[in-house]
Amino acid sequence: MSPAKPVNQRAWWFVLPVLISVAFSALVPLMTIVNYSVQDILGPDQAVFVGMEWYKEILRDPELHGALYRQLLFTAAVLAIEIPLGVALALAMPERGWRASLTLVLLAMPLLIPWNVVGTIWQIFARGDIGLAGYVLTQLGIDYNYSQHPTDAWLTVLVMDVWHWTPLVALLSYAALRAIPEPFYQAARIDGASRWAVFRYIELPKMRGVLTIALLLRLMDSFMIYTEPFVLTGGGPGTATTFLSQYLTQKAVGQFDLGPAAAFSLVYFLIILLLCFVLYTFMKDPQ
Amino acid sequence: MRLSGISYRAGSELWLRDVDLSLAEGGINVLLGATLAGKTTLLRILAGLDRPSTGSIRKGESDLTGIAVRQRNVAMVYQQFINYPSLTVYENIASPLRVARKPAAHIEARVAQLAATLRLTPFLARYPAELSGGQQQRTALARALAKDAELLLLDEPLINLDYKLREELRAELKQLFADGHTTVVYATTEPLEALQLGGHTTLLAEGRVLQSGPTLEVFRRPATLEAARAFSDPPLNVIPAGMLADSVRIPATRTPASEIVLGIRAHEFSLAGAPGRAALSGKVELAEISGSETFIHLARDDVRLVAQVPGVHDLALNQLCTLYVRPASLYGFDRDGRLLFAPES
Amino acid sequence: MARIDLEDVGHRYAGATDSWALRPLTMTWNDGGAYALLGPSGCGKTTLLNIISGLITPTRGKVSFDGRDVTALAPEARNIAQVFQFPVVYDTMTVFDNLAFPLRNRGWDATRLRRRVEEVADILELRADLARRARALSADQKQKISLGRGLVRPDVAAVLFDEPLTVIDPHLKWLLRRKLKQIHQQLQLSLLYVTHDQTEALTFADQVVVMSEGEIVQVGTPQQLFETPAHRFVGHFIGSPGMNFLACEWSAGAATIGGVRLQTSSAREPPSGAALSIGVRPEYLELAPAPGPNRVPVRVAAIQDQGIHTMVQVEIGASLAWAKLRSPASAARSATTFAHLPPQRCALYADERRVP
Q1: pTM of the model
Q2: Are B266 and B295 in contact, with CB atoms under 8 Å apart?
Q3: Taking an 8 Å Cβ-Cβ cutoff, which residues of chain C contact chain B?
Q4: Which of B186, B188, B295, C97 is deepest in the core (most CB within 10 A)?
């Protein structure tokens, strides 16, 4: 079968409006950022060219290292939990009928909630005095307080993210599973394969493409996470849950240091790009 | 329509190379070749869905090469039964007519006519998902015919249907295209289908044209051994001339007899000896009985032969068996595969 | 090796209260035989196959292997192997691992396993490809792997095929068919082959079961089905093209077309009031230039030279019939022609059934 795409010049005309708006909303700001990142902006009209100065400074900044380290840890934990959990959920879901529809709707609900509302929900939910989970935990004798203990804050942010985003992985995996033709399962039954073998040799290989997408999506999004932890813990206690994007915002908006902030943004962007590239190459189908 | 020097490269692979082809106007043009021979790629280029990397397509005076598919007067039927799932059969057939803004009365009459020809009249109110495979494909065909395009492309349209249904539809298709109104290009992997459809046949292998011409001519006078092989079902029997040299006289050619390779079609063999016939003996590997004929698989030295003989012959495994063939039915090829001689028709 | 008995086995799909996917039937499949289930789409052949393999539990009836009731037994416990329409291989494994998979699931030790896998790979001519990734092979090789996974178990009693040559190129179909036949002779397994392609069915099987709309229409050897179809459907379905049915009348003890008396192989009289036709295969319909016994005047409607043979369409009385002649066919050229119906090759059909 010919794999090439059809040649149709007219299509470009339809895409042009989008291209223009993307250019304005993304490319121009991006170029502005590059511009800022090599200048020291002292005032509205006073800008001094400093070359790579900001880049050197932020790369040496210990607070940045701390935020980066916490971010990496967070993303790794998120991926390690959400991907297997999502797949497991997809495997457990009913295949057809009204039960399937019902499960799909229930599963999709956390994805529909605005992100700051998600933060607010969990902020209240985990409180020791009026929150259901927090109250139950304290009643059980567990010393739980997410605004004071760093570990508790981490766990809460993690659980919140898992609750929020695992459904996405589950839905994608579910779609991939439905696409596997029945004879594969039948042949495996006849071969006497165990449930685990069916998963490992049939389902997992056939879900490869979709899992790559899910992994990349969660990697990018969790690396940029801002709203939910900000609303939940404000980055605290102290800097325990201050991840990269929050640190960047503090620097740019809080301290109004545009130069370093711009440099930081670019570095941030490049880190995500690198991670995605590495992961994609690793996960790509060798065929 | 003429294609000259067409080649098509996708990524690092060359799907078509140097294809020169003339389509017979108003007739059936069969593209015969194995899977991945380039048939679908060629059809897509004819349709205008893909642009060839080199070469040109000309119709009369005009050059069609760069023209997009929307501007071309072409209709296409695919292997998978492709219909608009949300439209009824009636609406499916009517869709090209609606796009062409034909008057309502004309649309109604034409749809009724096509439905009658393709035996779809009882199903006009149904949706494609409710129909059987054969009915869905007939709907796709009716829709393609409704467009009344100059060029109708069919990409192995019957391959997903039952054997018997295929036979019936093939006969129907032949009837439909007999009026010479449309230029039809029909891609298939089965030599027997090409023979049944008639018209012109182009043999494709690995992106190259092996031979092109009236079907029976290509069948009876293959230009090369590869072409003869491509157009044989059961597979062509190929033996060195030496195997028959003592028992029969091979037409004289400039090539020394030791370099000649003989080709024998399976149905030319017979179990009855007669004066003048060449004999080939071997061990029976298998005898397949198919109703009124038997396929005998023989092994001799390193050569495997298949014979298609009339009658039911229950031969035992490893039994010695002799096949006879008239020297007049032999094909001869030289060392490079070029045709030296062929049976007179 | 198993004898398979089906007693009053029938099946309805869930939700269909008044239509059978498979009408109740009783049959025995003998040890070591090669059977084909032949019929159009939707005739119930795949349902029957899946009941035998255990993928479907029939809504009624009993399935026994060698006398043992296996109706409720799962496929993996039935010692059967099944090859599907498209190759089912484990992409991530090598050919060797694919073939070894069923044995590893049974806990075989490495040496015994290796020997068995190599044995089966030899039979299937896959020995050279054992180390390659299964994904990289062609469709016909993948089908061989699917088959191999079934053959590798020494206790396998029957191999079931569900239209296995569908995705295979015509050139390669020959090789695979030969391989299947060789395996049958070599390993003496019971083979059950489902197909809609009558050439495949007739060349493969010792006994062919012709099915239509959920029931068995006729069972017989390829030759029996070809020469003496019991039902018009069988006559039509088998043979390429199918049998010609010429409308005729019955008068004064003989079948007549347009007043010409014709002798057929049917000895009995047809029941009165039935719609009569004479069935004769295109392969046996001959054309002659002059009148004679069992010859009817015909008009030649079309002549198609199809390379290997020539198809001639003639009008016989009110019916159109095809004659399949060897190319070149000079007898077809003349305008006034007679069709010769060899008596032993014709039979009378009353309504749908053959008159004996």
Answers
A1: 0.80
A2: yes
A3: 40-42, 169-171, 174, 177-178, 181-182, 185, 196-199, 202-204, 222-223, 225-226, 236-242, 281, 283, 304-308, 328
A4: B186
